Amino acid sequence: MATKPDLKGSSFALSVLHLTEDNVEDCLQFLHNKVEQAPAFFTHAPLVVDIEKAPQIDIDFASLRQGIVKAGMIPVGVTGCQTPLIKKQVTDAGFAVMSTSKSGYQAPAEIVPTKVVRTPIRSGQQVYAKGGDLVILNHVSAGAEVIADGSVQIHGTCRGRVIAGASGQKGAMILCDVLQAELVSIAGHYHLSDQIASEHWQQKMLVTLQDEQLNFDKIK
């Protein structure tokens, strides 16, 4: 039986670019550098621009949107607009006007039973635990990606990309028996491999998010 279209609220993982000045060129160069560092993570990813702390007089929103597209990301909307005039400039440039809530950009996903994978995750594979935790009882190869709305546990060597709290859960954690990840991310906060301290490399590590920063604890 055919079903009718429906429109419902939902939550998605969105990267947020925080502007603190009205220099669009510098901002776009920063964004371009980030995409070059981790193209598999950022290319075609949706992006929200937060202008709450930026001077809202001379922002060229049209150039900003074009630059985001050129960098390889998808511009979604702008949040932090302070006046109706700014909101009009934002929509005229092709952005949506967005607002935040006290809980952040993402509503927590409903938690479901833990997803357990016993086989190795090989290069090019992606495993996603929607709405819950993910446990890998094996290795994660370079070029592979494991994602969970909750926490991620890897009982083996992790050489790929690990993304926890994909729907915004800041309390999510990452546990790796041997940390050699290309990228670790919790609720949109991430470290690339070259940002992980040498003393944490190839160690059993617990990664958490504290005060909007990733925290690495060695597990004995």
UniProtKB/TrEMBL annotation:
Pfam families: MinC_C, MinC_N
Keywords attached to this entry: Cell cycle, Cell division, Septation
The keyword Cell division appears for this protein: yes
Superkingdom, natural source: Bacteria
InterPro entries registered for this protein in UniProt: CAP/MinC_C, MinC, MinC_C_sf, MinC_N, Septum_form_inhib_MinC_C
Septum formation inhibitor MinC C-terminal domain residues: 116-216
Signal peptide: none
Septum formation inhibitor MinC N-terminal domain: residues covered: 6-75
PANTHER family in the cross-refs: SEPTUM SITE-DETERMINING PROTEIN MINC
Family statement: Belongs to the MinC family.
Subunit architecture: Interacts with MinD and FtsZ.
HAMAP family given in the database record: MinC
Biological role: Cell division inhibitor that blocks the formation of polar Z ring septums. Rapidly oscillates between the poles of the cell to destabilize FtsZ filaments that have formed before they mature into polar Z rings. Prevents FtsZ polymerization.
Protein name: Probable septum site-determining protein MinC
Gene name in the database record: minC
